[in-house]
Amino acid sequence: MQSIDKLFVNREKQTAGFIKMLQGQTPKRIMLIEASGGLGKSWTVEFMRVECQRRGIPNTEIDFADSIVFDFLALLRRARDGFGIAAFNLFTQAINEVTQPTVRIETGAANTNAINNLLGQSNTFSGSNVNVGEVIAGNVIKDNSFVINADNAVVRQALQDRLSGAFFACLASLTSQGPLCFFFDTYDKVTVEAEAWLMGHLLPQIRDGLITNVVVVIAGRSVPKLDNQWDHLIARTGLDLLSEPHVKEYLVQRRGLNDDPNVIKALFQGSTGQPQLLAMLADNILRSQASGGDDDWL
Asked: Is the pTM of this model over 0.85?
C-alpha cells in the first residue's frame, strides 16, 4: 500500500491552512474538522501528521476510537509519549510522586498497630529505602504506570492541577525550540475526563497566550462548541464528497486502475463520492486483479 500522502486528493484547502498554522502565517491555532462518517477525517489527520514528520515537527495523536479509556492521566501520558518522553522528565517525576501506592498493614489487633505508609523517595519500610519515584534509565525517568491515588475529589483535582502544571512546563520548554502539534481524532467519542482537560486546560492555555507555538487539530462527527471569543484562534472546516474528477484522480493516478470512463463513472456512482467507500471498492478491484479472479467465489 502506498503512503497516505501519495493517496491523498481534494483536501488542499485544509492542508494548506494547516501548513499556514504551522508556519505562523495566521493567528489561527486550532483547526476543527467536523464531518460525517466516511468522508476521510482520519485520512486528513494522518496526512497532516506526515506533513509534521516531513518538517521535523513534534506531534502526538489521540484517537478516541482507540480501545484505551482516556482518563486524565492516560491522556497526558499518551501526549507525552507522542512528543518524546525525554522532554517530559519533570512531568514523569510528578506522576511518580502523586501516584505512589498506599500500603496498609494490619497486625490483627483491632484498630491497633495499624500502619499506613505512603511509600516515597524519603520513606523507609522495614529498614530499607523504598523508591517508587524516579528510576533513571539513561536520561529518561521511567513512569511507574500507577494511577492517581485519591478518593477525595478536592485532593484529586489538586493533584491533576499539579500534573497539568508540570506537563505545560515541559511543553513550554519544547515549544521554545519550534512548533508542535496535537491531533485529536474521533472527538465524538471523547471521554468526560479527556474533554475536561482539553477544554479546561489545553485550549485556554493557548487562548490566553500562556503557551505558544502549539497547533491543535480536532476531528470528528462532532467537535467542541466554542463561542465567538475563540473566533480569532479557530479555523472551522468540513470535508466534501469527492467529485467525479477527483474520483478519477484517486483511482487512476493514485491507485493505478485503468482509465476506463465506464468503470470510473460506476465507482463514482457506487461510492457516492465518499472517500472511505471508494477506497474499499478500489481495494476489492485491485485484489481481484492480483489474484486473476481465482478467489471470486470467496
From this structure: no
